[in-house]
Amino acid sequence: MPLLIRAATPADLPELVAWNAAMAWETEHKRLDPETLQRGISGVFEQDRRGFYLIAEHDGVAVGSLLVTYEWSDWRCGDFWWIQSVYVIPAARRGGVFRALYAAVAQRAVEAGAVGLRLYVETENRRAQATYAGLGMQRCHYWMYEATLPPPGGRVD
Prior knowledge:
Blueprint: E1 4-7, H1 13-28, H2 34-46, E2 52-58, E3 61-73, E4 78-88, H3 97-112, E5 116-119, H4 126-134
Parallel strand pairs: 4-5
Antiparallel strand pairs: 1-2, 2-3, 3-4
């Protein structure tokens, strides 16, 4: 049976929390605070401007997801859609789940008038890099920098 790609709903919150936590551990050996993660994912459902999640299902069982967020480009007068928080359950990996999710994002982006798709990938994750290249994505010439800021009245961990 082919994969079904659908928009996530708040009912998917437990799986999205679990999958984001698993992805953070697998990729960075980082343990995320479940309460913060749940509030962060819920925040996407609460405000459309933050983005949306897609879920991939096989035979009615959710097997993967991703988050899309938006970045305005003044140079191109349009939005880039950022693919983030990609997770596919181990049993479904290498089975076309990400490819189907990506195709759904690309179709929605074209329909919405987005100017491009972007994503982050770990520098050592050659398998993911090959997957993205196989989908026609190209490595860009920018390096990414970040600075973590403390929450209001809080401290950075």
